[in-house]
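User: structure tokens for Esterase family protein, please.
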Amino acid sequence: MAIINLEYYSEVLGMNRNVKIIYPEASKVSGFKNTDIPVLYLLHGMSGNENSWLARTGLDRLVRHTNIAIIMPSTDLGFYVNTTYGMNYFDAIAIELPKVIQNFFPNLSTKRDKNFIAGLSMGGYGAFRLGLGTNHFSHIASLSGVLTFNGMEGRFEENPEYWGGIFGTWEQFKNSDNEILALAARARKQEEKPKLYVWCGEQDELFSGNEFAVSELKRFGYDTTYEKSSGTHDWYYWTKYIEEVLKWLPINYVQEERLI
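Assistant: Done. Predicted tokens:
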């Protein structure tokens, strides 16, 4: 397994960007084939960047025996959307980045059924926004994600500079593609809907929103795996449940042997 830091110029954003990559190693993976390698795009939360998952979890250890590449980009604080201030993070990550990755790593799969996306908190929102807003990913996972802003209208009023810069006014946000459930309602008409995974801790302030979002996603006809447990908005739980995501994905996930 190799950990690669790729710096590239983003034509969409007009600046250099960094993306962290975990790349499988033939000698560590049973039955490794150096073609059509499955890919997981893994997104950070509001306080993070492309280094967060590696710095805060044992992710590299978890996948060292599994044939999967993990791509970890950064959206800064831009919520993975095309912001009103002109930074088009959605286009940069959903459309441009897969082409950049394919250019440098042509043996990674471009097939929908071998491309997946997941994230935590803001990244959980981002995974659903990018996943439902394209037809590139067959599986989408959220850990403690902001899957609905219902009841959070006050944030737009309290900090209009930030939230307005990201989404515009509350009225502009509602029923737009940036509202996950509105997007999901429209995307359910796709012939092949992605499979969904959601986890949220019961002590998390986002828990009730996740409960509501999951009920709506199921009502829309999405194949949704929902897990909940005692837990807060914390890396302890995200480290635990990213392994559950890996088990859920249609890959031959090989668990690391644990020392007793």
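User: Anything notable?

Assistant: The CA atoms of residues 196 and 224 lie 5 Å apart.
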